[in-house]
User: Fold this.
Amino acid sequence: MSIQIFGLPISRGVAIGRAVLIASSRVDVDHYFVAEEQVESEIGRLRAARDAVAEEILALKSDLPAEAPAELAALLDVHLMLLHDDTLSEATKQWIEQRHYNAEWALSAQLEVLARQFDEMEDDYLRERKADIEQVVERLLRQMAASAGRGAPAAAEALAGARDFGGADPLVLVASDVAPADMLHFKRSVFTGFVTDVGGRTSHTAIVARSMDIPAVVGAREASRLIRQDDWVVIDGDAGVVIVDPSPIVLEEYRFRRRQSELERARLDRLRHTPAVTLDGVPVELLANIELPGDAPAALEAGAVGVGLFRSEFLFLNRGGDLPGEDEQYEAYRDAVLAMRGLPVTIRTVDVGADKPLERMSAQELRHEHGLNPALGLRAIRWSLAEPGMFRQQLRAILRASAHGKVRILIPMVAHLGEVRQVFEAVARAKAQLDDGGFAYSRVEVGAMVEVPAAAVMIDRFLRHFDYVSVGTNDLIQYTLAIDRADESVSHLYDPWHPAVLGLLSRTIEAAGAAGKPVCVCGEMAGDTAFTELLLAMGLRSFSMHPARVSAVKQRVLRADTRQLAQRVRAALDSDDPALEWSGRRSS
Assistant:
């Protein structure tokens, strides 16, 4: 029977496919696809683990003291029986052969199937035997982890391998959560969409999903429990609805909607190389946000006139604590600059912490990250200033890349003038070190992100020091409204239309204009067409967004008249309900 699961719509469109479920486990399990020639060796790994666990259980049984309860020996016999039962061993083997899952993933997938079967049993005694199968699988997983000597390929590499395997049917990923760094590998995978139990509209996982234009729903609470492996699933990224086992009629309706969406996208694509100029002749700069150098060609293809935000932290994630060196960073930044063919590239210094922790963070840092509020902890520029050697290394790499094109440095989460002083001291030190080493670099503008309310309130003072500012609306909203943007339980309070948010945004744009300094919005509001006219009315002339959103925003720009819009903005900013005021006036 078809069921509907409701969550938060974070990436538009419709995805239809079979569910690939990554279940949670007490043992960390990597999920990746194996090549055809690796299938037999993967089955061999499974068989070796089974034999090793069987030896362990037999050894435990032989070492039982004479006074041990008979039930304990019987329990070990049950575990031996389950270990060799076809419903576990043979079925797990089929996941490897048919879907090319690695052995650990195959085991966890089959465990989920069996656990559901036990849950549906009416007999209490049989239902409680689920714990036995869980213990057996956990033994197998631990044995494989121990025998490997090192972890299997990281989840990031795992998802990357999905581009080649998985069968003929399209696949959608269902998980409790997906790490932001792992999300990057959807770009090369066969997954056409994803669903998670947790998350918010502006969590970094959601942001990366939108940047790849993948239909997605987050905060679906019970999705990973209600959806089974191989279920047919429809993801409605517009409405935030997930339909499991849809009827033929519903399936056909969504297939029609998907075709219509593809036609609309093709129509918008024709605007890619049309200059973004309003009806009254005002040019507007539409830039792209990217995560890795390889994203730059997509930004060009989308018609972006530069990169307004290169999230450099994605070079630092999923490395097992091994940070990229100066040369590695330089090559990455250089590649992005060259790929943009002379167009400007704004590189944000590393913004780790909160939902993007580094593996190398100290125990104290991690304790603070997980035990207190990570969004208010040692993140972004705070972390960089706490690691001066790393920070200067990154600054040197960015400066060296400026020899190949127009590069700007962007500093995240600045809130104190003391931080401003330290930033410019670090830039000066980095330049001096490059001079001593004989490295070339060009003049690089330094800008600040306005994402802490303090920065917006004292924007005039910040503008005395920085060459430009860029508004990160995601964090600005989060900190202004005291809303954890990754927490679905308070997501209904996350409101870009809140009068306080719009007031800070308008203040920043107006102050930058008065100071003659460029201002850009690089948060999610920049790519949301519901805000395009409002931002133009405030005086914004530079937007940076996911490449997939450039054409849709450009269409709004081409239809806008900034003179008329400017006459209406004050009423919206003064209103108790700006969204109603703006939409009402626009439709009148």
Summary: The domain at 3-24+158-266 is CATH 3.50.30.10 (Glucose Oxidase; domain 1). The CA atoms of residues 99 and 270 lie 38 Å apart. The chain has a mean pLDDT of 85. The chain has three domains: 3-24+158-266, 36-152, 274-587.
